[in-house]
Amino acid sequence: MSHVLIIEPVSSGTLLISAAHAAGHQVSVVSAGQGDRCLSDAFRDLVDTVITVDSNDEDKVLDAVVRAHERQPFDAILPGFEYYVPLVARLAARLGLPGLTEAAALRLRYKNLMREALDRAGVRVPRFRAVDVSRAPDDLAADVDAATAHVGLPCVVKPVDLAGSVLVRKAATVAEVRDAVARIAECGIADLDRGPRPLALIEEYVQGPEYSLEGYLTADGPSIAGVTRKRLGPEPHFVETGHLVTAAGTGGPDADLVAYVTEAVRVLGLDTGVFHAEVRRGPHGPVLMEVGARLPGDQICTLLQLAIGLDLPAAFVTCMLGRPPRPLAPAGDGSHLADGTRAAGIRFLVRPGLTRFTEVQGLDKARDITGYVNSALVYGPGQDIPEAADFNGRLGWFIFTAPDAPALEAALDEADERMRFL
Questions:
Q1: Residue pair 295/313 in contact by the 8 Å Cβ criterion
Q2: Burial letters for 231-244: b for 16+ Cβ neighbours within 10 Å, e otherwise?
Q3: Among 35, 143, 213, 311, which residue's beta carbon has the most beta carbons within 10 A?
Q4: pTM of the predicted model as reported, rounded to 2 decimal places
């Protein structure tokens, strides 16, 4: 039995608790124990030790973890959320455990550093320019105008260090770029890892379909297991309203994506653990949006399990223990899935302009559609619904499986159409 430490598991990071517990490992967790950083009772029951400390205070976390390691050594340390990837790298180095280098962790955490590293290596990226939003207003305005002139319009403005499409916006005019940068400047997110913020990234808008590729690292390099086709809401926002997962392969229609992401992961120095890479297939080929050295969110781990039999949380734990993950069946071979499933998908329910509802209709009818797995509603009658500008504006979701992508898309469309919010 090994001893696994997870730093602040939230969202999909909580799956690491289940995976480590199911594998028979002793599980410890660093958690602030308040607000969003608070373990539910269900997950707390799977944890052997909770180290309660402000996980946004790196010095306190380092001190607490080192003292806990002296009492009962850890065999692996994993980030429970993207914000803690650099901290985990520093902890692993301090304790002599498997992990990313700090330089690689920062490249994977900060999108400007990611862009710079790939650009230097000749890997295709959008034209980009980072601006320091803490500068004096006149200086910032000049920087924004210069960056916009370099990148061109339309462009995309985003924070270098947030997640979930928060504050990401397409801008068609210089005024819209300035407004988007101002919103980032007002954000006030605490610096968790002493990185180069506060920065906004102004980058080229890449026209084309969006994907994510999920996988893990082996001694031979990146192993890409699944390709996720993204469904996005209306611009200027980039709200992800659906994901459709199928097996990856070195041949076929996704070969260019697999080759591109494999090279990007190598260049960025991601040599252990798992990854979630988001790309667009632009007019000149794949272009990276970002790579995360962590589990994907939005139930993609569940979709990978359903579509191709990959338990990515378990693979993450195994990798960080310095062991090879269990090999998958050959890409595209659905024989290991008894029901013939080869695709799994999620559809998020988004109703732009809806701020509140009193009644939901069609839920039972949607659940009767062939391939239904499960569903959930995020908001109830009478609750205020945020603008559909990021993940917070999604009302709920459905998960379905099917023998192929077209059948899956049809089932998801039908379920969405049957839902009525009155």
A1: yes
A2: bebeebbbbbbbbb
A3: 213
A4: 0.93
Closest CA to 235 of 154, 145, 115: 154
What whole-number distance in Å separates Cα of residue 234 and Cα of residue 269? 34
Nearest partner of 16 among 311, 376, 309, 400, judged by Cα: 311
- Hey, what long-range contacts does 136-140 have (CB within 8 A, 24 or more apart)? 140/181, 140/185
Q: Cα(33)–Cα(47) distance, rounded to whole angstroms?
A: 14
pLDDT in tens, 208-256: 999 999 999 988 899 999 999 999 999 999 999 999 999 886 667 899 9
DSSP annotation of 282 reads E
Angle between helices 102-109 and 255-268 (to 10 degrees): 130
Q: Rounded to an integer, what distance in angstroms lies between the CA atom of residue 275 and that of residue 278? A: 10
Q: What is the C-alpha radius of gyration for the chain, rounded to an integer number of angstroms?
A: 21
Residue 306's alpha-carbon distances to 178, 345, 401, in angstroms, are 43, 9, 7
What is the rounded distance in angstroms from the CA atom of residue 65 to the CA atom of residue 101?
18
Backbone φ and ψ of 157, nearest 5°: -115, 130
Question: Is residue 178 within 8 Å of residue 169, measured between CB atoms?
Answer: no
- Beta-ladder partners of 310: none
Query: Cis bond leading into 154, ω under 30°?
Result: yes
For 323, residues 6+ apart whose C-beta sits below 8 A from its C-beta are none
